[in-house]
Each structure stands twice: as C-alpha cells, then as structure tokens.
C-alpha cells in the first residue's frame, strides 16, 4: 500500500496559535447558570409528579413577576442589563490575540517568552560572559551582560549581538537586539 502524495498546493496553510477567546469566562458563567436553572426545573418536575414534596420555585417566581408594576429601581436595572448585554456581545466578537510568532519554516511557531530565553541562552554561551539577564518582547530584546574579569567589553558587546542575531534568524520577523555590558568595577 502506497502513501498518498500531498503536493504543496494541496496543503492548507496552518493558522497561527491563538489565545482562548475572551468570551470563555462569560460562557462558563452562563453555562453554570443554565445548569442551575435545569436543576431547579428538574426539582419542580419531581414535585409536579409527586416524587418529592415541597413548593414549586418556578411557579412562585413567575407569580411574583406577574404582580410587579413599574418601580423606580427598574430603569437603572434595565440600563445596567443592556450595558452588560452589549459588553457580552463585544467580548464575543473580540478577536483572539496571537500567542506565538512565526518562524521562517512554514507552519512553525515559537512562544513569545521563548524568544527572550533563546536570546539569553545564545548570549550566555559566549566566552567571557559571566551572567546575562534578558527582557523584552517580540519587537525588542534587551540583554544586560556581565563580563568575566579581564574581557574587552567593546568586543564582547559586538560578539553577543552577533550571536543573538544568529540565534534569532529563524524568526520571520526577528526583534531588535539591545546589548548593555555592565562595566567592571576596580578589583
């Protein structure tokens, strides 16, 4: 049995990894409320068939609502409900943020925080580097390098920048790299 050959044109482009939708929290709360309503309805159904004793909650709630007339608290409550409803709609259609960055290899991604760690590791591997702290984002990475005693800090700065740039070449959009070499105090 032979394996089917998939041409590059037949492959679908992979979509970038995205964060969970912003509406996830709202959906969980609404689902829990719906489950609670289902439990109340099941309780009232068991009361109606005589399986358990008690008074029906849904009928009591509907009777309470049926007797209501317009009151002053209803206008602010209605406005608050409308604002809440509009905000839920906006949350539901809000685009999800990208969590990974593309590499040059198609359909290959790297997490944003791993880019900083990759830059830190590349700088740490340079001879003459004692410690490295790295911070930044997908656009700019700042490295603070502490050299070993006796190393030329000017040459070390250029070497670290080159090594980090080489480590980040596989990114589709490599970030700018800033290297700060901490000056050594007198021994």
UniProtKB/TrEMBL annotation:
Residue ranges annotated for the DUF6286 domain, each copy included: 83-182
InterPro entries found in the cross-reference section: DUF6286
Entry keyword Glycosyltransferase: no
Transmembrane segments: 18-39, 46-67, 73-93
Keywords tagged on the record: Membrane, Transmembrane, Transmembrane helix
Pfam families assigned: DUF6286 (PF19803)
Superkingdom, natural source: Bacteria
Protein name: DUF6286 domain-containing protein
